[in-house]
Each structure stands twice: as C-alpha cells, then as structure tokens.
Amino acid sequence: MKHTLILRISIFWLLCFGFSATAQNDTIAKPKRNKKPKIEAKQDSIPSKIESDSTAVQLKYGLRVGANIGKLAQSFLDEDFSGFEIMADYRIKEDLYIAGELGFDDKNTITDYLDVTSKGSYIKAGIDLNVYQNWLDMDNMVYFGFRVGGSTFSQTTNSFTVYTTNQYWAPQYTSTDAVEISGLTAFWAEIMLGFKVELLTNLYLGANVQLKFLASESSINNFEVLYIPGYGKTYDSGIIGAGYSYFLSYRIPLYKKNK
Fold it and tell me: Is residue 126 part of a domain?
C-alpha cells in the first residue's frame, strides 16, 4: 500500500512538471529578424561622365604687324622730318619671337652753319624675349629685344658756312650750292626694352626704348654723316645712339597651342 502511494505521488509531480514546461515554451516569443532597408540609387545621382575641372590655356600664334605712331606724329608736328616705320613679329615659342622693323626717314638738319638733308630706308631684324608671366589667357609682354640694323641713304648738303676763329678780319665762306652724295650705307646693333599690351582682341599698344651701337658707316670727303635713317643723329653721340618708339599693332591669328 505504501509503495503504491509513493508511485502515485511521483507520477503526479512528473505530470505537473511536464505541463509547466510546455506552457513556458508557448509564452516565450520568438525574436523577429530585422529586415535591412533597401537602398535604391537614383539614376540621376550617378554621373554618367566624369568631367575634368581643369582648363587648358591656349596661346595664340600668328603674324603681328603694326605701325610706328611716334614717327607719324613726328612727321605731322616737325616740318624738318618725315618718315614711317612698320613692324612685325612672329611667335616661335611660348616666350620667344622673331621680330623686325622696316622704314624710311627724310631728315633735314639745320644749325647755325649747316643745312643738310638725309633720306633713305632701313631694315632691322632680331628677336624679342618676353619676361612677363601672363595670367590665364592674357597676352601681354614685357620684353628684351635685340636687333641688327642696316641702312642705305643719301646726304645732301644744301648750304654750309666755314667757321673761322678770327671772324673780324677774314670773311666767312658760305656756299649755297647743293651737293648730293648717294649710295651711303651704315650698320649697327641695338638692344631694347619694351612692352606690349592687348587693348582689344588681337589689338596691341606698345612702346620701347633702344640703345644703339654703330658698327660701320660710309665716309664723306671733307664732311661727315650727320644723320642715319633708322639709327638717328651721329654728330653729337659718336658710335652710341639712343631712340624710342611707340606703336599700334594687330595680330593675324593663325593657330593656337595649349600652354
């Protein structure tokens, strides 16, 4: 009897334990899985082409021609002078140009004892080196130049008076017979410093100063050359001369290169 009671009690506790475990499993909620959000890329937000934000600077190459407006002004204001000069340069490298001038002078030199006319043509050729650093697409110049020049001309002595130290006793000799000597030549070299500023597209204003060194000139019997076209006066400067010019020029654009 006793054993039967113990067995019933054991079965009762086993049934209670089993029912409690089943109820506990049903009340425990299963964790839900978090779904990852879908990221949809808009088609417009993805660039189809990558563009470079750098811009290449293009240098203009071409023939630049102009006129010496200083000589035109002098011809208008000075009745003893007439002349003209045209200039040109051509870019061969970023900062290097071949350059030259071609002109004609007719100069009448009058002093207390002389009246002499010199006229003829000249040509100068050389290079210009730009030392100015332009911003972006600017095209200005501050340059050093070198030229070799040559002139062919004539000199006419219109009148002259022989100066004597003893003017009280001896009369001064004066001649008014014009004497022309043609076929004269002269050669020189010059260095210059100048600038060119682009006023409008391909239109430039410029000026320069020149220091000249006379290499050779024709000689005249019993007289001297007073003025050399393209070089200037020689009677008070010897073999070293100076000059200046200012000009307007226009570049004929031919092509461009990236800097």
Answer: yes
Number of C-alpha atoms within 13 angstroms, CB side, residue 235? 11
Tell me, what's the pLDDT at 10? Answer: 54
Look up residue 115 and give its two tokens. 């009246």
Q: How many domains does the chain have?
A: 1
Number of continuous H segments (helices) and E segments (strands) in the chain:
2, 11
Instruction: Please report, for the domain that includes residue 137, its CATH number.
Output: 2.40.160.20
Q: How far apart are CA 61 and CA 204, in angstroms?
A: 14
**HSE-CB of 130 using CA atoms within 13 angstroms:** 20
How many Cβ atoms from other residues are within 10 Å of residue 108's Cβ?
A: 17
Distance set, CA 79 to CA 60, 72, 75, 83, 177 (Å):
41, 12, 7, 11, 22
pLDDT digits (tens, 9 = 90+) for 119-178: 999 999 999 999 999 987 789 999 999 999 999 999 999 988 877 766 666 667 777 888
Q: Residue 38 CA to chain centroid, in angstroms?
A: 60
Determine, yes or no, domain membership for 229.
yes
Range of the domain at 164: 58-258
Q: In the chain, which residues have pLDDT < 70?
A: 1-55, 165-171, 237
What is the percent of the chain where pLDDT is above 70?
Answer: 74
Query: In the prediction, which pLDDT does 41 show?
Result: 47
Question: Do the domain assignments include residue 13?
Answer: no
In a domain, 47, yes or no: no
Give per-residue burial for 14-27: e unless 16+ CB within 10 Å, then b.
eeeeeeeeeeeeee
Tokens of 16: 């209670």
Q: How far apart are CA 259 and CA 246, in angstroms?
A: 29
